[in-house]
Automatic annotation (TrEMBL):
UniProt KW keywords: Ligase
Top-level taxon of the source organism: Bacteria
Domain AMP-dependent synthetase/ligase as annotated: residue spans: 210-296
Name under which the protein is recorded: Phenylacetate--CoA ligase family protein
Pfam family of the protein (one): AMP-binding
Protein's organism: Ottowia flava
Amino acid sequence: MTSVFDPLHMQAATLDVMAATHATPSLLAQRQQQRLARLLDAARHGSAFYRERLAPAAGRGHHLAHVPHVTRAELMGDFDQWVTDPALRLDELRDFTADDTRVGEAWLGRYVVWESSGTSSKPGVFVQDAPAMAVYDALEAVRHRVAGRSSGAGRLFGPFSALDAFGAGDRTAMVTATGGHFASVVSFERLRRVNPWLAKSARCFSLLQSTEALVAALNEFQPTVLATYPTAAALLADEAAAGRLQIRPRCVMTGGEALGAAARERVRRSFDGAAVRSSYGASEFLPIAWECAHGHLHVNEDWVILEPVDEHYRPVPRGQPSHTVLLTNLANLVQPLIRYDLGDQVTLHSQRCGCGSPLPMLDVGGRRDDVLRVPSLRRKGETVSLLPMALCTVVEEQCGLFDFQLQQRDTHTLVLRVPHEGDEARAVIDRCRDALQHFATAQGAEPIRVLGEAGVVVPRGRSGKACRMLMA
């Protein structure tokens, strides 16, 4: 079965990423501007949607300042005019992604297709060609992957080098939802098809099966690398601490959700000191940022542009949290994404990391749409925003609870759902109630109520992400 892979593109992308990893900030900026110029030219010539959108900025050079931002709804509503290949039709791609038996299969023999989880709206459909996938693969292999004991720098120079870095010498288990064309699953299955070694040493495990069945499957497989969501990693850490999960991964890779310090330490200890690394990505650009050994996320800004902005889409200074962030994908010329409203709250930092990387550090605060807003104690008529990541951190780090769901019932009331029962449930709910109420007050909010519901299993969405935060 065909897979989208070009060894020459892979080798060129790998060498480029390796060189840029240690380049000066000025050389990184030069690479970024060259790729932005290429993207804008491709969009003007190949996309009817962008030809119209970019017309007012014509003659102003290859800059983003005068380009209007776009949303997923706009782009998906005009999909056939958005893409630069007229052979790509949204109705046909919807039919393709509706068939779970075709996950990882090449569309038209030359495109990789995945969908977003669509938790708040209709799923987006995203298409990549071989050059774009080579960039994603190279960024993952060179910057994100934690090298094993047998890895050597010289091995990265062969045409299948990144695939080697993705799995040679390791047994990789990806624990996620397997019933859909989600980016992580599609990318994983594609690499298994391209590299015959990975077919035996890498496997997807469904997060939606029973914990007992998942533990049994992982015990049989004995992975050395475990990749999953932070909430799932914490669940598996509990199973390991209880002695039921008996695996010893050298590395736990997490993404898709925020990884708090307490959860990280819990995972590390439960898996005998395994390296724990998080990442930040999206269906719109899979490897946005990677975590260094110093515990900081670094933006792959040689291939992606992030613009933190306020609620009026004005630039936010470095060091300050944004309302949302605009993403420009410099690798994908088939489906141009230029100043795309990603909906995430982020903070870009100007200071350099102690690891020596020239790539900027990034903090991710969560989805803009999931922010809880409660009345302000000091300013009548105004509200205070409580970020989901901050609330989760309070529950995890101050209360030691990792499996829970919070819902805003009304302006003054939160509902905390936990899987515990009886006296244990009452104790953990009381502990969390005190911590959450104290946190909200410290943020300047009016006093809130925290109600508890015991014996509730935290639900997961189609993509396998835990549904921790629910709006009123």
